[in-house]
Specification:
It is an enzyme of class 2 (transferase). The protein is α/β, with parallel strands linked by helices and about 450 residues long. The protein has two domains: about 210 residues, Spore Coat Polysaccharide Biosynthesis Protein SpsA, Chain A; about 210 residues, UDP N-Acetylglucosamine Acyltransferase, domain 1 (3 Solenoid), CATH 2.160.10.10. Helix content is about 20%, strand content about 30%. The protein has a 16-stranded parallel beta sheet that branches. Strands 14-17-20-23-26-28-30-33-36 form a nine-stranded parallel beta sheet, with no helix packed on it. Strands 5-4-1-6-10-7-11 form a seven-stranded mixed beta sheet. Strand 2 and strand 3 form a beta hairpin. About 40% of the residues are buried.
Length: about 450
């Protein structure tokens, strides 16, 4: 089967300078939800129109693209992709702004189509308020669809609606595209008109209306996202994850979380994140595209494109940036930032620290206020801290530099050269005490003021 996704519309109601189908839904462009589903069923083509260059930048690979320069209806959109249609293969029609259609529902539609040997099989739905939708009209063995703007009062009372999702025999649709006309209220070429050319038509009723709900404006986008998040959270809780306040936790559909982990409110878990068992996440935490082991605690922190092994604690107020790898039993404390750094087993940086382009061994203590000075204004440079080293508070390690095994860096040091193993390194000015200086200076200033 071939799948053609129609995504050429302007999306005026989105009130946006961006094409509707590139707006993110639960962390990814809405059109990519449809493409990912479609790829489970066959070869995929997409019809683009409004600002198509912007849409092409975000859509997934291995998709054929066709351009509809003028938006003259769904029938016209399919005409623009006529070279994609194979007479010997079925054609499934989907839409770039209907992101939550499932493979399971489309398989039911496909089975009905094949068993009945239909020319067309239509996915329909029952709505209590069908206003705005085309209605399914049954006349003996024939089925036709009447659009809302062309319907009389009797037809408008019908509650079974056309979702716009169909499977056509390739030979049938290719033959009948040429028979479409635009003699209707919209002066558009309706794909629905092709259905009236056949007596071999049947319908499949969708069970979950969310699957066929389109997104037309940002309010609908928010409503659909909210419902999908509710379902995602419900599924996770039934699988053994504890979510303290599901209405205030935001988890993408692609996220995986192990049982007995606890997610606190105001937490965002996004992208391809995997979290193990017995973790405590949040509150007020954001994790994206990261791999988290078992028994990890992350509190009031930001984590993106990082790897965290078992029994690690992070936060509060930590920021783990891309390329961070924390090994077992690491402790990263408040106001610590890491980037492209590996922190070895049992090491810790508890306070006010920046670790960039650093490789840190096992059992290392990073004192409060320590920074790796990894950028010289032009290039980034690495810092290496070997096992069992102790970095005193308020130290600056000017990269490239290596701190040897078992070495100690005195508090307040600026280290610009390598430090051998088992060495105490001090890189600060010698302290000088001038006793009585402050008292003398104060008296001088007092006398000067009295003479004014």
């Amino acid at each position: 089967m071939k799948i053609l996704i129609l995504a050429a519309g302007l999306g005026k109601r989105m009130k946006s300078k961006y094409p509707k189908v590139v707006h993110n839904v639960l962390g990814k462009p809405m059109i990519n939800w449809v493409i990912e589903t479609a790829k489970n069923l066959g070869k995929v083509g997409v019809v683009l129109g409004y600002k198509y260059e912007e849409v092409k930048k975000v859509i997934l690979n291995n998709v054929e693209i066709f351009i509809q320069n003028e938006q003259l209806g769904t029938g016209h959109a399919v005409m623009c992709a006529k070279d994609f249609i194979d007479e010997n293969d079925d054609l499934l029609i989907l839409y770039g702004d209907v992101p939550f259609i499932t493979v399971e529902t489309l398989e039911k539609l496909k089975n009905e189509h094949e068993i009945k040997n239909n020319d067309v099989t239509i996915l329909t739905a029952i709505l209590e308020n069908p206003s705005g939708y085309g209605r399914i009209i049954r006349e003996g063995n024939k089925i036709r669809i009447v659009e809302e703007k062309d319907a009389n009062d009797e037809i408008k009372r019908i509650k079974e609606i056309n979702t716009g999702i169909y499977i056509f025999k390739g030979e049938f649709i290719k033959k009948n595209l040429a028979n479409l006309n635009n003699k209707n209220a919209q002066e558009e070429y309706y794909l629905t008109d092709i259905i009236s050319f056949s007596n071999k038509v049947s319908t499949v009723l969708v069970e979950d209306i969310l699957e066929v709900t389109g997104i037309n404006d940002k309010f609908q986008l928010a409503l659909l996202e909210k419902e999908m998040r509710r379902r995602i959270n419900t599924k996770l809780m039934l699988e053994g994850v504890r979510i303290i306040d599901p209405e205030n936790v935001y988890i993408d559909a692609t996220v995986k979380i192990g049982k007995d982990s606890i997610i606190y409110p105001f937490t965002f878990i996004e992208g391809e994140t995997v979290i193990g068992e017995d973790c405590i996440i949040g509150p007020m935490t954001r994790i994206k595209d990261s791999k988290i082991g078992n028994n990890v605690k992350i509190i009031r922190s930001e984590v993106e494109k990082a790897t965290i092994e078992d029994n690690v604690s992070v936060g509060p107020f930590s920021r783990l940036r891309e390329g961070t790898h924390l090994k077992e039993n690491v402790k990263i404390g408040n106001f610590v930032e890491t980037k492209k750094s590996i922190v070895g087993t049992n090491s810790k940086a508890q306070h006010l620290t920046y670790l960039g382009d650093a490789t840190i061994g096992n059992n290392v203590n990073i004192g409060a206020g320590t920074i790796t000075c990894n950028y010289d204004g032009k290039n980034k440079h690495p810092t290496f801290i070997d096992d069992n080293a102790f970095i005193g508070s308020n130290s600056s390690l000017v990269a490239p530099v290596k701190i040897g095994k078992n070495s100690i860096i005195g508090a307040g040091s600026v280290i610009t050269n390598n430090v051998p193993e088992d060495t105490l390194a001090l890189g600060r000015a010698r302290q000088i005490n001038k006793e009585g200086w402050v008292k003398t200076k104060r008296e001088e200033n007092k006398n000067a003021d009295s003479k004014k």
